[in-house]
Give the backbone structure.
Amino acid sequence: MIVWGASFIATKLALRDLSPVTVVWLRFAIGVIILGIATRLRHQFSLPKKQEWLYFGLLGFLGITFHQWLQSTGLLTVQASTTAWIVATTPVFIAILSWLFLHEKLRWMQISGIILAALGVLLVVSKGNISGLFSGHFGTTGDILILISAPNWAVFSILSSTGLKKYQATQMMFFVMVIGWLFTSILFFTSGGISELGHLTWSSFMGIGFLGIFCSGVAYIAWYDGLQALPASQIGAFLYMEPLVAVIVAWAILGESILLITLAGGVIILLGVRLVQNT
């Protein structure tokens, strides 16, 4: 969670010299190598069946190509700390989508949590000026892109549940990451991303290295190993650390201001998420 919380700041650093597509392409090029080595060492490497490639293709597009493009592009105009608070609403969207498409019940406590989380997002995005939202000013384009990334990840998570019944988590994430990286490669080479590599500075290089090695490699392995060792409900509690880490690291490295109204909105989001997860 510490690593993923800092990922938004690392992305910000990389975006100073590179486009979002190039950042995503480089990050997951490194992640693919690390997860590939991990699956080999764990003797989990085996190719999916022919009829499963379309399924993994959809997951790769949603979970890697589209999701990371949304977040990287959004971070061009949105503070790293704001992004982390919005992304924290993902469990709320999972609950809503499960209710809509999987016919799972929503209790009154969960509905209250959804309303609270929505209020928290409004406070974070508007920085307390909620009246401005009703006049048609919903933050920046980046705010909208980041907000879209939360339900997109919820869709990805729900769709992934089918594959996780058959494949080891690290093995499945490797397939998803490879396909998503290949989709991103199309954008990278057709948009002239190769010419941007000469623009790398030490700070953007460190940002890419952190994203690739730790965020897309080591953290995924640690997360799924944790899920095998502890109950999902206990592991889920650690998710609350991510936005808090992002706020502190963004303040320390990027000099982003810590607004009390943003912290208040963040606390409301986490309280709403807690109510939604309290099943």
The chain has a mean pLDDT of 88. The chain has one domain: 2-277.
